Amino acid sequence: MNRFEIALAGVIGEENLTRIQNVKVCIAGAGGLGSNCALHLVRSGFKKLRIIDFDLVEYSNLNRQFYFVAQVGRKKVEALEENLLLVNTDLAIEALSEKIREDNVMDYITGCDAVVEALDNVYSKTTLVEACLDSKKPLVAASGLAGWGNSDGIKIHCIKNNFYIVGDLVSGAGPACPQLAPGVNVAAAMQADILLGYFLKQPLEPKKT
Q1: What gap in Å lies between CA 38 and CA 84, rounded to an integer?
Q2: Are strands 48-52 and 92-96 parallel, antiparallel or unpaired?
Q3: Max Cα separation, the chain?
Q4: pTM for the predicted model, two decimal places
Q5: Is 169 buried (19+), middle (13-18) or exposed (0-12) by CB count in 10 A?
Q6: Looking at per-residue confidence, does 93 or 173 come out higher?
């Protein structure tokens, strides 16, 4: 273990850290949700990540995504990998600058123990969710986290034993309801916390209706 991992083991225990480090997480999307969720996962001890996104860093991303001015114009997955390695130098990251489609989605989730859905394209979201639903992998998606002043409305919705949605399920991004750092980070932290609890053997139960 490096010094970061030794310090973290002092917080959560070496057994818990070892369990977390053996988990490989697929993060589909490296925007506001994906980049910040990845940061929370790494700070919690996860070190095996497969990150998929085909976009470049833009100035308009900097208000809520885990990037910096000097990285504008670079591939998001490469910039994110660079930033995450500043937290833990011993990460095992697959940074794939590609787009999720029906003909490749199974390749991305195969070999991973969990999936974070952090996409802003409806087609890609649907494709990923449908591919994951029949698997036993925990899938953590998001819907409804735009605007401000309503962070207490962002909730965890346990749809089934391996499928969770974070958000208020209502607020869509738009001119009157922009995506801003506080709401996005609340949701990203919740996504990471679900996986942390899941793999530390404290999964959430579906709500009875």
Answers
A1: 8
A2: parallel
A3: 49
A4: 0.93
A5: middle
A6: 93
